[in-house]
Design goal:
It is built from 2 helices and no strands. The chain has 61 residues and is mostly helical. The chain has a domain of 36 residues. The N and C termini lie far apart (41 Å). 0% of the residues are buried.
């Protein structure tokens, strides 16, 4: 929901998260997700390539 509304009008969903995991973890999760989204937007905007090949690719030794 938060992605579709750009983070607006999601207080009810955040309250559910707080009820499930507590205030500290809810805020931590929100900050971590925000950091990942910001990183992804920056990488995509600047069309950055990975600094090294993925360890999950079969051709990597």
């Amino acid at each position: 929901m938060a992605f579709r509304t750009f983070g607006n009008d999601v207080a009810q969903e955040f309250d559910v998260l707080i009820d499930e995991v507590g205030h500290e973890i809810a805020v931590t999760l929100t900050m971590a997700v925000g950091r990942c989204i910001t990183y992804a937007i920056t990488v995509n905007t600047l069309e950055l390539a990975p600094p090294a090949p993925s360890v999950f690719e079969q051709d990597v030794v």
